[in-house]
Amino acid sequence: MKKILGVFLSVLVVLVSCTNNEGPETPAGEAPVLPPELSMAPDMSMFDDQGSEGNREIQVGNWAYAAINVGVYSAILYQHLVIPVTAFKATIGTDAMYNESEGLWVWEKAFEISGKGSYSIRLTAEVLEEDVFWMGYISGEGVSNFVWFTGESNKNGEEGSWNLYEGPESASVWLSNRWEIDREAESGFTKFTVEKEGEHMGSSIRYAVNTDEYFDRMVTIVNAAEENTIYVDWRSEEKNGRVKSLAHFGDELFHCWDGSLQNVDCE
């Protein structure tokens, strides 16, 4: 009897030991993949690092025409919506923590915006099977936990969408967005559509990267007010490119510029 009891106690000790080694229950799987920077902050610096809009108007070239039109959407993203865009960029490269009580993955980061002050973001992700639902809470100068953007994506971060809100004083959607990315091929696109009422409502800009193409950067702008579509292609390193607009040029041809941003004949 004592021998049987001893064996039982030995087995019990082993079982308890194994249970303790497992630690607290953790969520299944790993944190979802963050959407890429391209999804909310496409690199259109090609058209804003050569001077002010006034200077672009003076140049009146093919590049200048492209720059003026791209600049309208760059201004919305990098001036009017600079806080949520910068907030999202700040989360890239940070580690997520799982909040068991909320059932959410959380990314938190403090950041600065020149001329605007100090802010912080709490980006949350709710995973439901293969879908992820994102919410970006931003606090800082005159704002506390304002949800400045929301989004959806698949768990592996290959496609999704965003809604960017105007701001705390008018919490309506300014831009909606759809994006896709192929990280191995280093290609993808993001398309923003203006939801805010006004002259630009319904207009859109689509930015794409395709490293297999000669022109590896492409923008398509649809101006709903003027019923005009503008196509802009360029090489990211050399900076030469081309633009097409029936309303502006009066034809369906591309009009080119060289690496010095001067007009040239298209080859």
Offer a few descriptive terms.
disordered N terminus, 6 helices, globular, 14-stranded antiparallel sheet, 267 residues, alpha+beta
What is the residue-mean pLDDT, rounded to a whole number? 86
Structural class: alpha+beta
N-C termini distance: 96 Å
What's the gyration radius in Å?
25 Å
Proportion of residues in β-strands = 35-45%
* Sequence of strands across the biggest β-sheet: 1-2-3-4-5-6-7-8-9-10-11-12-13-14
What summary fits the major beta sheet?
14 strands, antiparallel
- Helical percentage: 10-25%
Number of helices: 6
Low-confidence stretches: 1-28, 51-58
Number of strands: 14
Strand/helix succession: HHHHHEEEEEEEEEEEEHEE
Report what the structure shows.
The chain has 267 residues and is α+β, with helices and mostly antiparallel strands. It has a domain at 32-200. Helix content is 24%, strand content 40%. It has 6 helices and 14 strands. It has a 14-stranded antiparallel sheet. Strand 13 (255-257) and strand 14 form a beta hairpin. Helix 4 (62-80) crosses helix 5 (82-91).
Care to give the gist of this entry?
This protein has 267 residues and is of the alpha+beta class.
